[in-house]
Amino acid sequence: MERLIEGVRQILRAGRIVAFTGAGISAESHVPTFRGGDGLWRNYSPESLATAEAFESDPRLVWEWYDWLRGLIHAAQPNPGHLALAELQQKNPGRFTLVTQNIDGLHEKAGSRDVVKLHGDIWRLRCTTCGREGRNEQVPMEHLPPLCRCGGTLRPAIVWFGEMLPEDSWMRAVDAAGRADVFVAIGTSAVVYPAAGLVRVARESGAQIVIVNPDPTPADQLAQWILRGPAGEILPRLI
Ligand code: BV8
Fold first, then answer.
1. What is the pLDDT of residues 179-199, one digit of tens each?
2. For ligand 1, atom 37, which residue shows the shortest CA distance?
3. What is the fold, at CATH topology level, of the domain defined by 32-75+121-158?
4. Taking the model in full, what pTM does it have?
5. In the CATH scheme, what is the homologous superfamily, with its name and number, of domain 1-31+78-119+165-239?
6. Comparing 23-37, 41-55, 180-194, which segment has the lowest mean pLDDT?
7. Atom 7 of ligand 1 has which residue's CA nearest to it?
8. Helices marked H in the chain
């Protein structure tokens, strides 16, 4: 592993870097991943709750899940993996882009700036009637589901399954992946699209692909470097 770490350290020294993160980077902050053993809540799978249909049919149940998740995330601290990426950005201003699928805000809490959030932000709510959007860090929420001052029901401003990604974030991510010299996929199972497709965009544009993950993923076949282990241990050794 030491030789691999040294090799990746070398390629990170020059060129444009994209770090692409998934729920696994927050696992060591005790935020449950989606598909790991701890990914289930009560007996619901995220896929069954993180949809507009589920919200439509039972906004209170979906909100109970997100209120529980907000409570967990509120108590969570960034781990050495988050902190290492913030340091990598500070050391390489202008040639580092962080693209995350996570909605927990732990990258910003660790000091990362200008984070490209593909799936939204659990601390922002949007009105399903008037569309007004704003920050809300209430833990726990006073009312479930929360209501807008217009009387409409508020939803988390995150991307559910079957929903489009925010256009500007998606375009920024595709552009960065297409111009990357090194693309590091950290803590993602690489099964959710279109986000997972960024690995292939980077590979086909000539980037070196680095995977940081304790388990195999479908993206491994695109990678020149596979660092098998937890992000909280591996990332600090890369900077
Ligand atoms: C869309 C917000 C289009 C909610 C999320 C078939 C083919 C292609 C696409 C599809 C398809 N069938 C359905 C689709 C579309 C669907 C999709 O991809 N489904 C998958 C399940 C097959 N995609 C969508 O619906 C997207 N929208 O396609 O719209 C469209 C077109 C026209 C018109 C309308 C729409 C929207 C996807 C976004 C969904 N929202 N999250 C919420 O968070 O509550 S996705 C959710 O899963 C998370 O946001 C996360 O981003 C995503 C992926 O999960 P990961 O982050 O990778 O986490 P996971 O738990 O899976 O894996 C953790 C990894 O970490 C593991 O590998 C583990 O080994 C590793 N790990 C564990 N510990 C550590 C670690 N790594 C490092 N260190 C550790 N310590």
1. 999 999 999 999 999 999 999
2. 161
3. SIR2/SIRT2 'Small Domain' (3.30.1600)
4. 0.95
5. TPP-binding domain (3.40.50.1220)
6. 41-55
7. 193
8. 2-11, 46-49, 52-57, 59-75, 80-91, 106-109, 167-179, 197-204, 231-238
